[in-house]
Amino acid sequence: MESDPLAQLRDIHLPETILWWPLAPGWWVLIILLGLVTGWIIFKAVQRKRANLYRRQALAKLLEIEQGGSSAPLADIFVVLKQTANIAYPKQQASSLSIEKFIGFLQISCVTSIFTDLPDNLSSALYSSSDQQTGNLQSLEIKVLASAKTWVIEHKREAKP
C-alpha cells in the first residue's frame, strides 16, 4: 500500500511579521544624533536672534525718527548711533568721541562706505534748530539717516573674549 505523497505535505509556515518597534540600535543612534543636531541649530538660532536684538531696536528708533517722531532728528540719529556703538563695542567707549572722530569710527567699523558727503560744519548743524513744521527731513538728515541704517545693519560686532 502506497500512501498518497500529497497527503504528507504540510502548509508553508510563514515567519512572524517583523515589527517596526523596538528599533534597532543603529536607529537609536541616528535619532539621538538628529535630536542633538536639531537642538544645536535651535540654540544657535536663538543665540543669534538675541545677539542682534540691539540692531532691531536701533533700526526701530531710526524708523521712528524717519517718520517724524523727533524734534531734532539729526541729533537723535547720532544718539541712537552712539547707543548702538556702545553695545556693539563696549571696550571702545565710542560715545565719548567728538562727532568727527565718531563718524571716523563708524566708517572704520563698517565694510560699506558711509557718511561720505557730510558738510564740514556738521557739529553746528547737529545742534542748530531746523524747520520741522512740515515734518519732512532735510537732505542732510536723509543722507545721515541712510548711512546710519547702513551702519546699524552692516557693522561688525566686537569679538567676545
Topology overview:
Blueprint: H1 25-51, H2 53-66, H3 73-88, H4 99-108, H5 122-127, H6 139-154
Helix pairs in contact: 2-3, 2-6, 3-6
Describe this structure in words.
With 161 residues, the protein is an all-alpha fold. The protein has a domain of 94 residues. Helices cover 55% and strands 0% of the residues. The protein contains 6 helices and no strands. Helix 2 packs antiparallel against helix 3, helix 2 runs antiparallel to helix 6 and helix 3 packs parallel to helix 6. The longest helix has 27 residues. It is rod-shaped, with a radius of gyration of 33 Å.
Give the overall shape: rod-shaped
Cα end-to-end separation: 98 Å
Task: State the secondary-structure class.
Answer: mainly alpha
List segments where confidence is low: pLDDT < 50 over at least 5 consecutive residues. none
Query: Please, what is the average pLDDT?
Result: 87
Please tally the β strands and state the result: 0
- Major sheet characteristics: none
Helix content: 55-70%
Radius of gyration: 33 Å
Query: Given the structure, what is the number of helices?
Result: 6
Determine the strand fraction and express it as a percent band.
under 5%
The ordered string of helix (H) and strand (E) elements is: HHHHHH
